[in-house]
Amino acid sequence: MERNQRGGETVSDPGPKPELKWIDIGKLYVDPQYQREAGSKASKKNIEYMRMNFSWAFCGALVVCYMKDKKQYAIIDGQHRYLVAKSLSAIDKLPCIIVSDLDVERQAKSFMAINTKRVILNSLASFHAAIAGGDPTACSVKQLLDECGIEVPKSPCGAGDTGRRQTHAVGSIAKLMAKYTPEQLKWALSIIPEAFGEKRGMLRASMIKALAEFIKLNPALDRPRFVQVLGKLDPVQMESDARSYVSIKGGTTSAAMVEVIDRAYRNSGRKNAA
């Protein structure tokens, strides 16, 4: 690469500068030779969501290439947005970035580059963006976590790097909110850092699920005693053992973990009585 006048590197051959233009939807088409099918369950769900919540802000500009033989524009990037626009009678044109002189082979390479070199938005970043966007579910999860003094990192990290009051399990917690009361979830979330002290990575989805179910089944248990019992267990080993048990006996990992927790709690009661 060469250096430009500002001292930065320049690309070797970027090709002709593209044109930005509004194009009639009827002049756009999808080339099945390299474009993925839009009939999958995930694609249909994505298309339906965009159709019901269409906004120019997230539509952006499609990347297209003019094909002289067809006198139309082949869509390199933006098939879903194009299909959404086709289904909406109020939209007759779409903003497009027009690249020139690309045959089908080079269009396919561009399609691959655009769709495989992206940094995928991870679930934690999606969660924080959803909060900023006012998503009701994400905001409810955040409120619950805030009340327990628990935070969600901006990006995923290993268990050893996750703080004692940090969790990645936002998706699981959102699902649990439909099954358990806020009080049951607060109990499960708050007792984990209390029991495990400074140990990192303990606010795992499997442990939160198991504890929410356990407190639902045992609403009158002795919390101080349970904190001692829980602190002696290893959540990582419990989850591993539970998965092995499920593979042999069936059932769910969460149910197997609840059984281990229940046994440990009852055994502690017998020891105290003795």
Task: Quickly list its features.
7 strands; single chain; 51% helix; Conserved hypothetical protein from pyrococcus furiosus pfu- 392566-001, ParB domain; 274 residues; alpha/beta; 2 domains; 12 helices
> How many DSSP-defined strands?
7
Straight-line distance between termini: 79 Å
- Overall, the morphology is elongated
Number of helices: 12
Low-confidence parts, pLDDT < 50 over ≥5 residues? none
Helical content band: 40-55%
Q: What's the SSE pattern?
A: EEEEHHEEHEHHHHHHHHH
Task: Give the helices and strands, then pairings.
Blueprint lengths: L1 E2 L5 E2 L8 E6 L3 E2 L11 H12 L3 H4 L2 E6 L4 E6 L1 H8 L6 E7 L4 H13 L6 H10 L3 H12 L22 H7 L5 H15 L8 H13 L5 H9 L3 H15 L3 H21 L1
Parallel strand pairs: 4-6, 5-7
Antiparallel strand pairs: 1-2, 3-7, 5-6
Helix pairs in contact: 1-3, 5-6, 7-9, 8-9, 8-10, 9-12, 10-12, 11-12
Can you give a write-up of this model?
There is one protein chain. With 274 residues, the chain is of the alpha/beta class. The protein folds into two domains: 13-116, Conserved hypothetical protein from pyrococcus furiosus pfu- 392566-001, ParB domain (Alpha-Beta Complex); 123-273, no CATH class. It is built from twelve helices and seven strands. The protein has helices spanning 41-52, 56-59, 79-86, 104-116, 123-132, 136-147, 170-176, 182-196, 205-217, 223-231, 235-249, 253-273; strands at 2-3, 9-10, 19-24, 28-29, 62-67, 72-77, 93-99. The strands form two sheets. The protein has a five-stranded mixed sheet. A hairpin with a 4-residue loop joins β5 (62-67) and β6. The longest helix has 21 residues, at 253-273. The protein is elongated and about 85 Å long. The N and C termini lie far apart (79 Å). The model has no long low-confidence stretch (mean pLDDT 84).
